[in-house]
Amino acid sequence: MDMIWTGIVKAVDMLVSFDREIFSIAWMTVKITGVATLIGLCVGIPAGLGLSVSRFPGRRLIIALINTGMGLPPVVVGLFVALFLWRMGPLGSLHLIYTPAAMVIAQVLIVVPIIAGLSLAAFQNVDPSALLQARALGASKTQALLVVLKESRLPQMAAVMAGFGGAISEVGAVLMVGGNITGQTRVLTTAIVQETRMGRFEVAIALSLVLLVLSFAVNAFLTYIQQKGALEWRLHTWK
Amino acid sequence: MKSLLSLAAAVWLTGLTLFAAPAASPPLAAGDLILATTTSLKDSGLLDVLLPCFEAASSYRVKAIAVGSGEALRMGEQGNADVLIVHSPADEEKFMAAGFGKDRKELMTNDFVLVGPSADPAGIRGRPVLDALRAVFETGAVFLSRSDSSGTDKKERSLWKRAGLEPKGRWYLETGQGMAETLRIASEKAGYTLTDRGTFLSLTGRLDLRVLVEGDKDLLNVYHVITVNPKRFPETNISGAEALMDFLMSPAVQTFIGQFGRDKYGAALFTPSLMGPGDGPKR
User: Fold this and answer.
1) Domain A2-238, CATH 1.10.3720.10 — does that match?
2) Which residues of B touch A181 (CB under 8 A)?
3) How far apart are alpha carbons B126 and B131 in whole angstroms?
4) CATH 3.40.190.10 location in chain B
């Protein structure tokens, strides 16, 4: 118990004194997961939208694959990305292994199915009459899609949060493709593993606190936007 | 860490005139260099000091990947690394004989030790290592094995074999993890394990374990640096690999290795091979 307490005290100490290494690791984490989540958004939401409004052979198979992908074990993603990116692998000539770019690729593969799957579910929950009404009122196809997008924006936010949370908390894949290199590819999760195995628990605790605060800040921000939207929507329909 | 860095800087600056003159002036060949090395070496903190000095002096950027010696050699066999620092001599000789390596030089040594709880339930303290293993086997005291094809794991297996025993059973726990994790588990489970002295010293004060068997000639731990053969893999960065090898074997760095850890742990973690006390030229 003593160790936990002194660990937390030391950790807070390091945070208050803006320990440079901890904050550079945190910044690297934000950059990698931020980019991966943005790419995940740009791919996942159109994919979810497309699958919800279109009908074509193989659509159910794709949906089943996406749903499986939502639970894709990150270490499997890490292994395959590494196999492709290793110098002697099929994409070795790109020289991406052990770089932040490789970590973004792995995280995108983890995030896209999560966002696509949740956003598909969100679109399918939109009341079909909203779409009909929009069309009846003379909306073009694109305008109708925008209506669907707007109607489902609350669950869409949840999809983004789940994707971001999945990416920032993941350790197996980024360790395999990034290599946990000091100053280059070390992120919060891989640093926590490293410091724990080295027995430097106070550093590990400090890094964990940063990870929790980061995760909380991003989710709090997204929740704020989401709930603000929800309130407006309620007031609007109440009248 | 700060004192280490300043020490490194001091040694490096004195050595810079010797080393950097040929390396830094003519071709500023930049590029990434993949160094596959053992977890024990990475965990010792030595590379965290040496590699930034090398990068500053040479314009290469080193990606040090910590894996077991077995995996490091495999990365070399597949051309996925440029230079290796490993400690599994029998496998290294096979690697060189098969033509995967270009040059192989002895970098430094330290020794393996058997560590365990101070209560020492199997009574191995001060005994020769093979007798100690037999005592652990007979009493069924908890023993932690890396079982990850690392150099330490290979060493442990060869020792059991030479003791004429096949370790198996509820007392023999295989972690499949690196040295630091395995030591931590040994500490928590009050078990014995084989470790290199460097990793053990670097965890001083964080483990409830004692050195119980040491100094046996069977326990020498030799690290070699190997450049991967560019004839086999044209993709590899051979100029960078050779620059790093020359850097590691330079007198300034070898002297620094002989000092490393002395201020923090009271003893150096490694004995440099070029200037080890009383070491004649090797091989």
Assistant:
1) yes
2) 63-65
3) 10
4) 2-109+223-272, 111-219
Residue among A88, A93, A95 minimizing CB distance to B79: A88
Binary contact (A88, B80; C-beta < 8 A): yes
Q: Provide the shortest C-alpha distance from residue B219 to chain A (in Å).
A: 24
Picking from A179, A181, A199, the nearest residue to B206 by CB comes out as A199
Question: Is A165 within 8 Å of chain B by CB?
Answer: no
pLDDT 10s digit of each residue in chain B, 283 long? 444 444 444 444 444 434 443 433 334 446 899 999 998 888 888 999 999 999 999 989 999 999 889 999 999 999 999 999 999 999 999 999 999 999 999 999 999 999 999 999 999 999 999 999 999 999 999 999 998 888 999 999 999 999 999 999 999 999 988 898 899 999 989 999 999 998 998 888 889 999 999 998 899 999 999 999 999 999 899 999 999 999 999 999 999 999 999 988 888 899 999 865 444 333 3
Identity of the amino acid at A48: G
What top-level class would CATH report for the domain B111-219? alpha beta
Residues of B in contact with A88 (CB under 8 A): 78-80, 233, 235
**Domains in chain A: boundaries:** 2-238
Cβ B211 vs Cβ B115: under 8 Å? yes
- Give the ipTM: 0.71
* Closest B-chain CA to A178: B65
Residue B59 burial by CB count (10 A; 0-12/13-18/19+): exposed, middle or buried? middle
Cβ atoms B74, B150 nearer than 8 A = no
Say which CATH class B2-109+223-272 falls into: alpha beta
Q: What is the pTM of this model?
A: 0.79
Q: Which residues of A touch B202 (CB under 8 A)?
A: 198
Q: Which of B65, B177, B202 lies at the smallest CB-CB distance from A179?
A: B65
Cβ contacts of B273-280, under 8 Å, gap ≥ 24: B273/B105, B273/B106, B273/B107, B273/B108, B273/B109, B273/B222, B274/B249, B275/B251, B276/B109
* B-proximal residues of A, 77-116, CB under 8 Å: 86-88, 92-93, 95, 97-98
What is d(CA A15, CA A27) in angstroms, rounded to the nearest whole number? 14
Number of H helices, E strands in chain A: 11, 0
Indicate which of B33, B39, B60, B63 best probes the interface with A, i.e. most A CBs within 10 Å of its own CB.
B63
Contact A199 B233 (CB under 8 A): no
Alpha helices by DSSP H, listed for A17-58, are: 20-53
Using the beta-carbon criterion (under 8 Å), do A197 and B181 form an inter-chain contact?
Answer: yes
| Look-up of token digits 């990150």 | A74
